[in-house]
From TrEMBL:
Protein name in the entry: Transposase IS4 family protein
GO biological process: DNA transposition
InterPro entries: Transposase_11, Transposase_InsH_N
Species of origin: Kyrpidia tusciae (strain DSM 2912 / NBRC 15312 / T2)
Organism superkingdom: Bacteria
Domain Transposase IS4-like: 180-409
MF GO annotations: DNA binding; transposase activity
Residue ranges annotated for the Transposase InsH N-terminal domain, each copy included: 14-105
Amino acid sequence: MAIIPQLELFSWEEIEPLGDLERLRLVLEHLPDEALMAHLEKSRGHGRDDYPVRAMWNSMLAGIVFQHPSIESLRRELSRNGQLRSICGLRAVPSAAAYTRFLRRLMEHGSWIESMFDELVKALSEELPEFGRRLAMDSKAIASWASRPSKEKKEDGRRDLDAAYGVKTYRGTREDGSTWEKVVRWFGYKLHLVVDAQHELPVAYTVTKGSRSDVKEGHVLLDELEKRHPEMLKKAEVLTADRGYDDSKLLSRCWDEYGIKPVIDTRRLWKDGEQTRLLPGHTNVVYDERGAVYCYCPETGARQQMSNGGFEKDRGTLKKVCPAKAYGITCQGREQCPVAGGVRVALAVDRRIFTPIARESYKWAKEYRYRTAVERVNSRLDVSFGFERHTIRGLAKMRLRCGLALCVMLAMALGRVREKQQERMRSLVRSVS
C-alpha cells in the first residue's frame, strides 16, 4: 500500500466526493508498492532528492488514472492543480528530465511491477472465491507511435526500434448464413492477456512485438500462470479463446496437464473440400471439423446428427447417442444398425476437434460467450488508460506502461471489493461514493 504524504494543504475529507480523486485514492491505498518504493529509495542512496521517489511514483500513477497520454500532459495538470500535487507529495512540478530518469529506473525494475501484479491477483483470489474458475485468453493490438520501421537503427530515445508489423483476421457468419472477414494490420506491439472471465480482470499478461504468434504466446502465458499462480491453474475449470489459439498441443495441454476444459474455436484446416471423415473403427459414422458426429442409416443411407451423451472423464471419451433413440425420429435400419446403442469417441481421435465439452453442444456455445471478457478488458485499456492515444516508444517502455495500467486496474477492483463496493469493481470511471 502506498504511503500518501500528509502535506499541510491535503485532506481526504475535502476530496472524498470527487470521483476522479476517489479513483486515485483507491489506487494509492491498495497498490502493494512498498517493496518497490523501499528498493528505489535505497538505490538512490544519498543523492539529490529534489523530487522524492514516492512523490514521483504517485504522480505517475495519477497520470495513468487520469488518462494523460504523455508526461507533458501530466506536468501541465500538476502545474495547474495544486490539490493533485499535494496528494502526490510534490511541492513543485518535476521537470521532464526528472520523469525521463525516473521512467528509466522503473524500466530497469520491470520484475518488481510484475511482482505487484502477482500480489494483486493473489489478493483478489483471496477476496473472491470464484476468481480464476473461468479464464479467457486473447491478444490486443497496440499500434506504435511510429508508423513504420526506422531506417536509423541507433537508439536515441525518439525512434521506435522494437515494433513490428502484426496482422489479425476476424471471421464470422451473418444471420443469413453468409460469411464475413475483417483483416486488421498494424505496426507495433501485442498485449497478450489471460483474464478472469466472470469478473473481467487480468490474471496474466505478456507484451511482445506485433509479429508474435498468438498460439506460441498462449503457451508462454500458461507457463507464467504455472510459475506464478499454480493454485489458479488447479482452480480453473474452463479456458476460452478464439480460433487464433486453435492448436492441438495447446488444447491437449489444458486438459492433460491442468484439467482445464478448453473452449477454443477451430480454424478450417481440412483441404480439398473435405467435409467429413470416417470415425475410426466404424463403417457408418463420420464427423466434421466442428466436432459434430453423424450416423448413416444402413437401410436408406440417410444421415442424422447423433446426440451428445456427455463426457466420460475416466475413459477420455465423448458419448454419442443414436438420434432415433434421443429424438424419437423414425429410422428404418435401426434394428441392424451397429451404432444403435451409441458410440464413444475418444479425444485422441483428433485433439483439435474433440474436447471434453462437445463443440456442437449448448454448453460449449454458452462457455464460449465468456471469451468476450477479454475484449471488454481491452476496451477499457483503450478508453480508460489511453492506449488509443499513446506516445510510447520501445518494447521496454511498452511493457512497463502495460504492467502499470493492469496493476492500476486490479488495485481499483481490489479497493472496491474491500470497501464493499463489489458491484462497481469493473468501473474505471465512476466513483464509489
